[in-house]
Each structure stands twice: as C-alpha cells, then as structure tokens.
C-alpha cells in the first residue's frame, strides 16, 4: 500500500480513531462461554467480518483483529495449538477485507497467560510463540501488531521484539493499569507507566499506550504520566466505557457515547494521539469520538 504508516499519520498532526470492544459483540452474535473466539474466524467468518465493518462504518481509522488469544499457549486450552497460523491469518484477512485499502489493521496480540517469574516458560518460548502469531497476522494482511493488555515487562518486551525482528509490522504495545490505594497507577505486576515507557521504547515499540481497566477519566491521568516520561512517541488509548457496575449479576459499563466523546478533548490535551475503546464500547462510542475529533 502506498499510504503513510500510522506513525507518519500521527507525526503529521492527525489524531486517529481506533475501534471498540470485540468480545461483547461475539457474545451477542451467539458465542457461548467456553468457545474459542479465534475459531470463529473460520467457522463464523461473516459474523466476525460484520464486527470489523461496523467499526469502519462508525468512522474508525483502524480496526483490530479477532486474535487476542491467538498464541499457541492460549489456543492449547482448546486443543487448537496446531492451527495457530491458520487462525491468526484468517483473523487478519477478515479485518483486512473490512478495512479496505485506506484503513489500517492493527492485529491484536494478548498475553499468553504464562509467567516467566514462576518458571512456566522461558523467554525463548514466549518469543517463539509471539513470532509464530505475528508472522501469520502479517501474512493475513495486518499493518501493525497491537500487543495489548500487558502487565509484565519481560513478556511485553518478548512480544515487541518478536514482531519487530520478524515482520515489517508497526508495533503498538499497551499495558493495563489499576489505581492503587496510594493513588498511583500500576499493573498487576507492579509496573508503572514510566516503567513501561523505559522498557518498550528501547525494545522497538513504535506506539505505546494503555488499554482496558479504566474509563476515559483515569486514562487521562495515565496518559499524562506516559507523556511526562516521553514527549515524542505516539500514544494509543483503548478506554473502557467507564468502570463496570454489577447489575442483576451482569457487568454494565456506564459511560455513554456522549460521556466518552465529552472527555476526548481532555485525553488529546494530555497527549493521546490515537483514541478508541475497550470493554463496553460500541460503534456508537466510536462514532461519537470520531465526530468530536473532527469538530475540534
């Protein structure tokens, strides 16, 4: 493709819009508890494509792929580890079809669930698993890898290097932070936003940021911390639609499209360059964010 890279677009002064949640959409389309989401890329391809298209139609500049749990370690839970390349290539090709030539595909790569600290795996094991996934996503037509929901620096660095050293994909990496009782932001492994920056930039990440775990309001504070640690690198945010509330046994995300759109200017002022959604967000949220950015 002869268009600019995502980083080039950001450096030209553009604030870009990403997509929203995928898991809740799959559930609405009939995915049952215990099913493998990635297998839907083969067995329910059209349903997955409809999700991707809904975000493009809402005005997203980029969409993810249905491959969050696509490492061989995660697929092993379903006895599908031998189909890792097939499932990831299919996931990327679906989003590529939906995105067309003008929009970007940022292929989702989630944590493996394995702990280096506990000796579950070696760094080489992780690197090879992420390499296998990344090569398949690239073969399916992805433009970038979105390594997301990370909490451990060593695992994230393995993923970043595996993508960077084996593909031509741009590399996005986002961590999930929680607010401690002391008012600080840390991952479940104790990593701060500044720690993340210090590790990911030398590892080769092109874009860094944060996803999940927080609504827009807290994401503003996290972005300020990231931007204080690095004034130049593009920052991506995939915020939840607020903090979930349990209503009649189900998690409900309270922030409306208007709520998220209303906080978008503050997020941009804090230093965010790419804004989308995570849990609880819908095409309506993405559309509202898009309209707000266009009106700024």
Your description of this structure?
The chain contains twelve helices and twelve strands. It is an alpha/beta fold and 296 residues long. The mean pLDDT is 96. 52% of the residues are buried. Helix 8 links the parallel strand 4 and strand 5. It has one domain (6-295): TIM Barrel (Alpha-Beta Barrel), CATH 3.20.20.
Strands, helices and their partners?
Layout: H1 6-11, E1 16-17, H2 23-28, H3 40-43, H4 45-57, E2 62-63, H5 72-75, H6 84-99, E3 104-109, H7 123-139, E4 144-150, H8 153-166, E5 170-175, E6 178-179, E7 185-186, H9 193-203, E8 207-211, H10 216-229, E9 235-239, E10 245-247, E11 250-252, H11 257-270, E12 274-277, H12 283-295
Parallel strand pairs: 1-12, 2-3, 3-4, 4-5, 5-8, 8-9, 9-12
Antiparallel strand pairs: 6-7, 10-11
CATH top level class name: Alpha Beta
CATH topology: TIM Barrel
Shape: globular
Q: Count of DSSP helices?
A: 12
**CATH superfamily assignment?**
Homocysteine-binding-like domain
Distance between the termini: 29 Å
DSSP helix fraction = 40-55%
Strand content: 15-25%
Question: Which structural class should the secondary elements be placed in?
Answer: alpha/beta
Count of discrete domains: 1
Question: What is the level-2 CATH architecture name?
Answer: Alpha-Beta Barrel
Q: What order do the SSEs take from the amino end to the carboxyl end, as H and E?
A: HEHHHEHHEHEHEEEHEHEEEHEH
**Stretches where pLDDT falls below 50 for ≥5 residues?**
none
Biggest β-sheet description: 8 strands, parallel
**Widest β-sheet, arrangement of strands:** 1-12-9-8-5-4-3-2
Radius of gyration: 18 Å
Average pLDDT value?
96
Total number of β-strand segments?
12
